[in-house]
Specification:
Subcellular location (chain B): Cell membrane
Organism (chain B): Pelagirhabdus alkalitolerans
Keywords (chain B): Cell membrane, Membrane, Transmembrane, Transmembrane helix, Transport
Structural class of chain B: mainly alpha
Structural class of chain A: alpha/beta
CATH superfamily of chain B: MetI-like
CATH topology of chain A: Rossmann fold
Number of domains of chain A: 1
Oligomer: heterodimer
Number of helices of chain A: 11
Strand content of chain B: under 5%
Distance between the termini of chain B: 8 Å
Helix content of chain A: 25-40%
Order of helices and strands of chain A: EEEHEEHEHHHHEHEHEEHHHEE
Number of helices of chain B: 12
Largest sheet of chain A: 8 strands, mixed
CATH class of chain A: Alpha Beta
Shape of chain B: flat
Pfam families (chain B): BPD_transp_1 (PF00528), BPD_transp_1_N (PF19300)
Bound molecules: adenosine-5'-triphosphate, iron/sulfur cluster, magnesium ion
Radius of gyration of chain B: 24 Å
Family (chain B): Belongs to the binding-protein-dependent transport system permease family.
CATH architecture of chain A: 3-Layer(aba) Sandwich
Largest sheet of chain B: 2 strands, antiparallel
Shape of chain A: elongated
Number of strands of chain A: 12
């Protein structure tokens, strides 16, 4: 069984410490990412899960320093192979983007440039990072299309994005992202926009390529089913903060944070037939950015919330297994029921 | 691509037929006797009768129209009322200045407009953006004859600044570059302003697209992101505007040629309207319409090159 403590044995490929990214709108500051911590061990897959708007995409864009105005990375550290990316110049960052760290996006339909062929777009990565000639780059692009399982790549490479289906386009995105053999691949909901069978194929492909190429992956999703299938570790995000970080086995067996339990309860189960029973969803909704709770961000929706939860923000605590948890229940300061067990809330 | 161009050319045939019907109708719609009009105001009744005969005005309308079209195809556009010379001979030498003026003005408005629009979009909300948009508004709201007069005042007549006279350019004629600079600026300014505004808004839309983020995530330089990835997409709607704008430009050419005393088609038209020389006016309109159609064919072909999403066949 993999334990989160394994991370400590080897330097992780990526370590994010107390990352803060805000959007400065006219009226107020939206703290989209508000003190995020996680690590991605070499060759492993970290899942980042959370409801819509929890800050998953902004976190991943921050890692590549692709936040656009009016957004700004306010603080923290992004250690890639031990070096802080926030100290790099824009030119140094460009050498990393698409080369050492690549990204694929949620929207395969709109993420490719409509006026260039698939081949031209993949080639660009080779020409930028490996100084290849146009011809050579095109040859490698065709090979890449073959690698990601696109049939008749020699024809496809000359086609424009609108001539391809969504699943094919996402394969092209993967080919483009993997062109320069990145050490880290960030996949921001790579399958959300695709239908279920294609979804499974794409995940399968990514896993297969990871085994072959030995890269690390950050898999962003709001689907815990995807996490169970593909990830080694998971960071659960809620309102810009990581509330729980654990190995996949620990998280599914013994979730600690009430929000994680809520997410697990909303996961459709295939092993038991629920019939027409509605899925348990977490009650309430995410508070708006101008009305952020002062204490634990989850307190208004948490079935265990006690006095301290409404007053003070819990710290991210390291558990004995090396997992991390941000919840008062697991501290000495807990003022609620001392016998509380969040797993009692789990639906069977 | 070749078949697309051929198709596009074939598609203009109905448009051209429409244009000839309009110019043909133009003569028939003017109140009064067409024969009288074509023969000129001072014509005697015999001359008018002769003209009626010559123009076949006693024939049924479809026959008259066919004669008219045959005339156009064979280059016979009738004769001028003022001097009795063939209209084609009057128009031909006037074409070159007008086409050159229109071409250079369009070139100027595209170059200036696109560059300014891109800069404004990239520097959205900054001072340079506001300044460019202010200039664009200025350029757009200034009547073109007034701009022409101002330019003549300051850069043809000129004034002294520190011993240097600013009368670098000439205020009349067409041929040398000193003669061409001011009219081209005069005629190109409004187009540049419209294209700048259009490019800016189109760029702002494109720059937020997912594929721009993809390009950045690939490690593409920001300059290349703007000019290779964004601009090529942003130009698609702009190109259409350039084609439509060309119509306004031809109208402006009439004024510009008058202000700068350029012996072009526009000026010929103005003179002919004043002299009620309808055969020339009619043919001038026809030539302008043909030019407009031609430019829009070129624009459509360009559009096809830029926009890969439209099916060329
Ligand atoms: N350009 C922006 N201006 C203002 N706020 C923004 C902007 N972009 C993102 N945000 C805020 O940042 C927060 C996090 O957004 P993010 O896209 O990271 O969510 P997410 O977890 O990826 O959600 P989803 O599952 O819907 O993709 C959102 O609540 C949003 O309000
Ligand atoms: S800190 Fe309190 S409110 Fe927050 S998750 Fe834990 S129990 Fe719930
Ligand atoms: Mg997202």
């Amino acid at each position: 069984m993999v334990k989160a403590t394994d991370i400590l044995d080897e330097q992780p490929i990526l370590e994010v410490k107390d990352l803060q990214t805000s959007f400065f709108t006219e009226k107020f500051e939206v703290k989209a990412v508000d003190g995020v911590n996680f690590a991605v061990p070499k060759g492993k897959t970290l899942g980042i899960v959370g409801e819509s708007g929890s800050g998953k995409s902004i976190t991943s864009l921050s890692v590549l320093r692709l936040i656009q105005d009016p957004g700004k990375i306010k603080g923290g550290e992004i250690l890639f192979k031990g070096e802080n990316l926030l100290d790099k110049s824009e030119a140094q960052m460009r050498k990393i983007r698409g080369n050492e760290i690549s990204m694929i996006f949620q929207e395969p339909m709109t993420s490719l440039n409509p006026v260039y062929t698939v081949g031209q777009q993949i080639s660009e990565a080779y020409m930028i990072h490996q100084n290849m000639s146009k011809k050579e780059a095109m040859l490698r692009s065709t090979e890449m299309l073959e690698l990601v399982g696109i049939p008749s790549p020699k024809q496809r490479v000359k086609q424009y994005p609108h001539e391809l289906s969504g699943g094919m386009r996402q394969r092209v995105m993967i080919a483009m992202a993997l062109a320069c053999d990145p050490e880290l691949l960030i996949a921001d909901e790579p399958t959300t926009a695709l239908d279920v069978t294609i979804q499974a194929q794409i995940l399968e492909l990514m896993k297969d390529l990871q085994d072959r190429l030995g890269m690390s992956i950050i898999m962003i999703t709001h689907d815990l089913g995807v996490v169970a299938e593909t990830c080694d570790y998971v960071a659960v995000m809620y309102m810009g903060k990581v509330v729980e970080y654990a190995s996949v086995t620990d998280l599914f067996k013994n979730p600690k944070h009430p929000y994680t339990v809520g997410l697990l309860n909303s996961l459709p189960r295939h092993d038991v037939d629920l019939g027409d029973v509605e899925l348990n969803v977490i009650k309430g909704s995410v508070p708006s950015p101008d009305n952020i709770p002062t204490g634990c961000r989850f307190a208004p929706r948490c079935p265990f919330a006690s006095d301290i939860c409404h007053e003070k923000l819990p710290h991210l605590e390291q558990s004995e297994e090396g997992n991390q948890i941000r919840c008062w229940i697991y501290t000495d300061e807990w003022d609620g029921d001392p016998e509380v067990n969040v797993n009692d809330q789990r639906s069977t | 691509m070749f078949t697309f161009i051929v198709r596009r050319l074939l598609q203009t045939i109905p448009v051209l037929i429409g244009v000839t019907i309009l110019t043909f109708g133009m003569m028939r719609l003017i109140p009064g006797d067409p024969a009288q009009i074509m023969a000129g105001e001072s014509a005697s009744p015999e001359q008018i009768e002769l003209t009626r005969e010559r123009l076949g005005l006693n024939d049924p309308l479809p026959v008259q129209y066919m004669d008219y079209v045959t005339g156009i195809v064979t280059g016979d556009l009738g004769t001028s009322v003022r001097n009795g010379r063939p209209v084609s001979g009057e128009i031909a030498p006037r074409l070159r200045p007008t086409i050159e003026l229109a071409f250079y003005s369009t070139l100027l408005s595209v170059l200036i407009g696109v560059t300014a629009g891109v800069i404004a979009a990239v520097r959205r909300g900054k001072l340079s953006d506001s300044l460019i948009m202010l200039f664009a508004l200025f350029g757009l709201s200034m009547p073109n004859f007034w701009l022409g007069l101002m330019l003549i005042q300051y850069f043809a007549i000129g004034f002294d600044v520190g011993g240097i006279n600013t009368g670098w350019f000439l205020a009349s004629g067409w041929g040398t570059w000193q003669q061409m600079v001011l009219p081209v600026i005069t005629l190109g300014t409004a187009g540049a302003a419209i294209i700048a505004r259009m490019t800016r808004s189109s760029m702002l839309e494109v720059i937020d697209q997912d594929y721009i983020r993809t390009a950045r995530a690939k490690g593409v330089k920001e300059r290349v992101v703007v000019y290779r990835h964004a601009l090529k997409n942003a130009l698609i709607p702009v190109v259409t505007v350039v084609g439509l704008q060309f119509g306004a430009l031809l109208g402006g050419a009439v004024l510009t040629e008058t202000v700068f005393a350029i012996n072009g088609l526009g000026r010929l038209m103005v003179d002919s309207i004043n002299a009620r020389d309808f055969p020339i006016v009619q043919s001038g309109v026809l030539v302008f319409a043909f030019l407009f159609v031609l430019v829009n064919i070129i624009v459509d072909i360009l559009y096809g090159f830029l926009n890969k999403r439209i099916d060329l066949n």
